[in-house]
Description:
The mean pLDDT is 86. A two-stranded antiparallel sheet has the order 1-2. β1 and β2 form a beta hairpin. The protein has 2 helices and 2 strands; from the N terminus they run αββα. It has one domain. The longest helix is centred in the last third of the chain and has 33 residues, at 39-71. Helix content is 70%, strand content 11%. It is mainly alpha-helical.
Amino acid sequence: MSKPLISIIFAILLLIFATQNMNMVSIRFVVGPPIEMPLILVISGAFIGGFVLATINHLRRNAFGSRRKRKEGP
């Protein structure tokens, strides 16, 4: 019972956060003109990009770590 309630509260807070961050911001890349987009998309993109990089790093470390353990055995 508490998990659905916590999920609903989290979703409502996320919705409020998204509606408060709809201002347009300029994103400047290394080359090209700046791009205008809502702030919530920039925040979401940074979160997703960080999550993807952390997941790849975690998978890479686990894959190489298990190989080292096998090689160091008797």
